[in-house]
Amino acid sequence: MAGVHLCYYLWQLIHLARRVHREVGFDLAHHVTFGKYWAPNLSAFLEGVPSVWGPVEGGESAPISFEPNLGPRGLVYEFARGLARALGELDPLERRTA
To answer: Which of 11, 25, 38, 92 sits at 20 to 30 Å (Cα–Cα) from 1?
Structure first.
């Protein structure tokens, strides 16, 4: 699954949207996400084109009081999600999107 998310991030770097925008001229760019706010939307970099980002979510975490019931796999999952969100919030491309 991590490979899918890496591809999701990297495909935007090929500048296809800029090329198509030069040819067609977008009125609006709407980027539908995987449901996480901590991944960038590079359509926000199209000059002169309003950008809609979303729907987005992914900011929630399991309450600490649930941790004893998550089990080892659930704890690792929640830790990994928290780490991914923290790293995403440091990403300058994501910060530009927001």
So the answer is: 92
Long-range contacts of 89-96 (CB under 8 A, 24+ apart): 89/38, 91/38, 91/40, 93/40, 93/42, 94/38, 94/39, 94/40, 96/40, 96/44, 96/45
Which of 45, 42, 36, 43 shows the shortest CA–CA distance to 84? 36
Strand partners, 2: none
Peptide bond into 92 cis (omega under 30): no
- In tens, the pLDDT along 70-92 reads 999 999 999 988 898 888 888 88
Q: How many other CB atoms are there within 10 angstroms of residue 42's CB atom?
A: 21
Q: What is the largest CA-CA distance in the chain?
A: 55
